[in-house]
Amino acid sequence: MAPSPNQEASNTPDDTVTLGAVGEFGLIARVTRERIQPAATLLGPGDDSAVVAAPDGRVVACVDVLVEGVHFRLDWSSPVDVGRKAAAANLADIAAMGAVPTGLLVGLAAPRDTPVEVLEGLADGLWAEAGLVDVGLVGGDVASSSQLVVSVTALGTLEGREAVTRSGARPGDVVAVCGRLGWSAAGLAVLTRGFRSPGAVVDAHRRPQPPYAAGPAAAVAGATAMIDVSDGLLADLAHVAEASGVRIDLRRTAFAIPDRLRDVGSALGVDPVDWMLTGGEDHALAATFPPSTPLPEGFTVVGAVEEGTGVTVDGEAHEGPSGWQHFT
Amino acid sequence: MAPSPNQEASNTPDDTVTLGAVGEFGLIARVTRERIQPAATLLGPGDDSAVVAAPDGRVVACVDVLVEGVHFRLDWSSPVDVGRKAAAANLADIAAMGAVPTGLLVGLAAPRDTPVEVLEGLADGLWAEAGLVDVGLVGGDVASSSQLVVSVTALGTLEGREAVTRSGARPGDVVAVCGRLGWSAAGLAVLTRGFRSPGAVVDAHRRPQPPYAAGPAAAVAGATAMIDVSDGLLADLAHVAEASGVRIDLRRTAFAIPDRLRDVGSALGVDPVDWMLTGGEDHALAATFPPSTPLPEGFTVVGAVEEGTGVTVDGEAHEGPSGWQHFT
Question: Which amino acid positions bind ATP, per UniProt (chains A, B) (predicted)?
């Protein structure tokens, strides 16, 4: 049984209300109260499981884990930002299959002394991002831990289409991207150096803006393979190249450098194209299309699929890291 | 990009291969290799998302978070046991809706120095438990953290039936349970006192044996409400009583005390019925049925639904805790 809401034993000295004070059920009540579930949520939070519509007889599902100090810092990002980012990382994985999201679940592990308002902010962020694609937070679980860990599961529907996997790229296809590249990396570079501006790139790091609708649009247009850019374009396209048994060659000059990235790059002495090639967390979509396919709005051709293996830039191997280094 | 498999920098001095050494992709390769996916897995691990069958146009979904030191101890349970328990907790939540599981996803956060064999054992346990109900581990994510956190998502199908929620119990219904009660609590009591036997109750704590098939069977038989006993029978039935707007009264004499529990209770000076009423983690199923419903095999009547609120035992409030105390 959850402690009663007026239990104060676990409050910190400054009267911050903590997770320990309200308990699991108190938190769940706070973050589910007065939320409006969309039509796809057939049964929302409050039972052993949720029930979500899967209209074409299949469900698309993925999970992403974000850890405080590894994927986010609460001195750099607000709890709302963290919630948005956790949802965005998953919703982009649904979009990358050519699917449309139908619901989110969250598995949360948090220290007992976590202020409830941090967790409420996190839930607000999850709901805000979910609202962009008309889905709800349909279920979850909360446990006590030493470090804040947010594990989000996203569900989606393919609307009767085939899933666009990583393995369908064929020599002759074009490679195209949709959404921001390098913005989050530029923002992280700024924050790492102790700055808080320019706001545009710092905000991009805090709150990715994946082009959710572009995923289904690419599927409809005939995309042969697709991936969301979470680790870095080179690193993620390497998965497509490997799964498809092809080489992907990018053209450096095909990347139009946004003025903001050029300015930040100049200030920090970094070639902004490197951020665009190796920066993750913007959750752009990268897809391959048969040649002469009319591309959906927002996609720009940046390279071609060829015979061979690996990812090259202008025919050459890229020097240096190709993206986010897991566990290093 | 994942570190190359022969990278040794993160190995511990005794040459244990760690998560940090093999990296995220190395771990995923190890735990997905040579696994056979059942028919419901339309697209398994290795892409942005998985695709799972949802034959009646709906998907049942739930998430449970297990934290090392809170929900399990690796000196008391093997990694395989932890994996089984994490899967069981979720699969029981699917069964408690009257649904049949279709797939599992896992969000894992683990310290970099975690031996890979611990995580392989955990994956083996997830697969072993999933195999009991013919489902696969269809996807997941791995992140670096200071504490081992296992967040499992289970998916299921209602096979065309309505979900059995917590809110359908009506005065006059009988309350029945299926599966073990109190065994895990007795095992925990033994372990907490520094013993490792009797093996039957210790094993019950390490590896719950939820009666998965009893959930759909109860739904088919006409169960009006159902819940899985994860926190303790009294605590969990309190959710049913609250959601249904009824009182639930249990009969203490209706609980047949297994000899094992009686023996352990005698040795430790505990009334075994208290374990049966308040012990969680066995993941028994508790359901209500209209009077005179022929109960499915394995269900035993232990009480009745009445007008009122709360849960009573022989008409009286239960003294002491009613189950697992979250965050206390």
Answer: 140-141, 166, 230
Q: Find the Cα–Cα–Cα–Cα dihedral B281, B283, B288, B291, rounded to 10°.
A: -110
B181 and B295 within one domain: yes
Quick check: ipTM above 0.95?
no
Q: Which of A108, A66, A67, A106 lies closest to A89 in space, CA to CA? A: A66
Instruction: Provide the domain count of chain A.
Output: 2
A104: contact with B, CB 8 A cutoff: no
Residue B130 in any domain: the answer is yes
With beta carbons under 8 A apart, name residues in chain A contacting B43: 163, 165
Residues in B touching A321 (Cβ below 8 Å)? 1
Residues B115 and B182 in one domain: no
Contact A86, A150 (CB under 8 A): yes
Please enumerate, by residue number, every residue of A annotated as part of a binding site for substrate: 71, 281, 324
Q: Tens place of pLDDT for every residue, chain B, 328 residues?
A: 333 333 334 444 568 899 999 988 888 888 888 899 999 999 999 999 999 999 999 999 999 999 999 889 998 899 999 999 999 999 999 999 999 999 999 999 999 999 999 999 999 999 999 999 999 999 999 999 999 999 999 999 999 999 999 999 999 999 999 999 999 999 999 999 998 889 999 999 999 999 999 999 999 999 999 999 999 999 999 999 999 999 999 999 999 999 999 999 999 999 999 999 999 889 999 999 999 999 999 999 999 999 999 999 999 998 877 776 555 5
Sorted by sequence, the CB contacts under 8 Å of residue A121 that are 6+ apart come out as A78, A79, A80, A82, A83
Contact B1 A231 (CB under 8 A): yes
Same domain, B193 and B300: yes
Mutate to test the interface with A, among B1, B66, B158, B212 (most CBs of A within 10 A): B1
